[in-house]
Amino acid sequence: MKWWLVIIAITQTFYIQAQNFDKIGSGEEVKVTGMLAFSSIAYAHNGLVYPSREPFTWYASGNVNLSILDVSLPFTYTYSNQGGKFTQPFNRTSFNPSYKWAKAYIGITSMNFSRYTLSGHLFAGAGLELSPGNWKIQIMSGRLNKAIDYDVESDNLNEIVYKRFGYGLKIGYQKNKFGGSVTLFKANDVAKSLTYIPLNTLVKPQDNLVISLDGKAELFSGLILEGEYAISGLTQNTLLENELTKDSRKPVYALINGNESTGYFNAYKTSLKYNLSFMSLAFQFEHIDPGYKTLGGYFFNNDLENYTFAPSFSLFKKKLSLALNTGYQLNNLSNDKAGTTKRWVGSINGSFTPNQNVVVNGNYSNFSTFTKNRPTTDPFYFVGADTMNFYQVAQTASGMISYNFGTDSIRHGLQGLYTYQVATNLTGAIETAGAFGTNLSFGGEKVPTKTQITNLSYACQFIPMKAGMTIAGNLNQTIFNDQLMRFFGPTLSLQKALWNKLANLSIGTTYNRQFSNGSIQSNILNHRIGFTLNPKSKNSKKGKATFSANANYLQRFAIQAGESNINEFNLFLNLNFSI
């Protein structure tokens, strides 16, 4: 079928004629934007046998985008002391001209109808998007895949691809609180596009037709119902002869080259949202059949059901906010796989702001997974792994409190942060499992990991001096089996704005010590200094420049006899210019 070439020609003709009388004479017919960047790194060390990087490296990059009547032509380059690369758009060009409520897609481009039909797949062809009034119409046609033949020398068995074409149409209407759309998407592989097909390849030419209906309605004030239903007819191998009798052949077979390898799969989702002044509720359900697939997407999850519930509340004149999000996922809907996996996800977030000086945040999240193996049905063969089901749960709780006070000339800020996380893995004869626990009938192995993170900080801003200071301390602790890892240290940093805030200077030092079961593992002192400059231009249209310089000096002190101290110095210089 070559009619998709005609569509490209028609669309290009429309582009030439309609594209863009609205910008002619406006002074914006041609627009140039882009960025130039240059970076360099100087490195020196003392005490290392193998240095971390080269003594000096530099890197230059840039991009220039030339727009002529909304036709974009991007150019990019990268170059360094290790080589360079330049790219221009003429081998992969996408033209997207628009005029009022019409927009065209020409060249190597992509469009999105829905995640069950056409979902961002690149195609070489043309598309059109029209939005007159309450209507929205999308149409596309082009080559989805370019044929890749088998090469004996490289033995690219896993890279064989048939040439594939796709055609799609979506028509939607939205008015006030109601709307809906219907989508048709067709894709087919050209069976004769490969010159040689190895006998041991699993790649077969396919044919696909997807029909989707979706809608949205506000049933009454604050209550919104949304949903989508899609059915995909997929022929896995068009090379098979259709040996079905005429009476047993379905009428749709003529549209999808149907045969014994043809299957029909459903996917649907629905959501219900209810919004009030102090509360909102949201529920969503999604079902995707095992084997559901659309040739309009690169990757698609199937064989699952998702349930999601998410209420939120705003109380006490919005001083207190609470949000809950919980979900449940189940796979192996046909019960024909070796294992079934269930996942529970839940989180609750809270924020309390009694006044403008105090903020309190809290969070709890829970993620658990239960995988149950399917027992063997052979009475003479016992697979021990059948009783080794797997359960994993990770729970995290965190809290933060901050207090800000001071005067117009000096501001103070105190902040405390604490996070606790426990992750547990269980293996054994687990019959059932829930979101927070399980019953282990016998055996089993419990492997918990507990992590605690504590951070305290004090910040002070001297307003007239345009300067600031931060003092912080952190403590991280992880317990796994019989191992206790502890990491702690203080940080001091100073900041100063210069030249009417056109530049900024910062200096800081961090000291860290790490212990394992009471034995010191590392002893590090890290010094930093940074400078940034953002000069103002009299004419912002001519571009903006930014310069930054950062130096880092790392001291790694010896912790065992016979070791030597290690010193490393890095200097980073960056220059950017954008227009």
Helices, by number, come to 2
Helix content bin: under 10%
Average pLDDT value? 85
Shape: globular
Which ranges are low-confidence, i.e. pLDDT below 50, for 5 or more consecutive residues? Answer: 1-21, 377-386
Number of strands: 31
Alpha carbon gyration radius = 31 Å
In terms of quaternary structure, what is this?
Answer: single chain
Q: How is the biggest beta sheet arranged?
A: 29 strands, antiparallel
Distance between the termini: 45 Å
Work out the strand percent.
over 45%
Classification by helices and strands: mainly beta
Summarize the structure.
With 579 residues, the protein is mainly beta. It is built from 2 helices and 31 strands. The chain starts with a helix and ends with a strand.
Topology readout:
Layout: H1 3-18, E1 30-46, E2 56-68, E3 71-80, E4 83-87, E5 94-95, E6 98-99, E7 102-112, E8 119-130, E9 135-145, E10 164-175, E11 178-189, E12 207-220, E13 223-235, H2 253-256, E14 262-275, E15 279-288, E16 304-309, E17 312-315, E18 320-331, E19 339-355, E20 358-373, E21 389-406, E22 410-428, E23 430-433, E24 438-440, E25 445-462, E26 467-480, E27 483-498, E28 503-516, E29 519-533, E30 544-556, E31 566-578
Antiparallel strand pairs: 1-2, 1-31, 2-3, 3-4, 5-7, 6-7, 7-8, 8-9, 9-10, 10-11, 11-12, 12-13, 13-14, 14-15, 15-16, 15-17, 16-18, 17-18, 18-19, 19-20, 20-21, 21-22, 22-25, 23-24, 25-26, 26-27, 27-28, 28-29, 29-30, 30-31
Protein model, in words:
Helix content is about 5%, strand content about 60%. By secondary structure, the chain is mostly beta strands. Strand 21 and strand 22 form a beta hairpin.
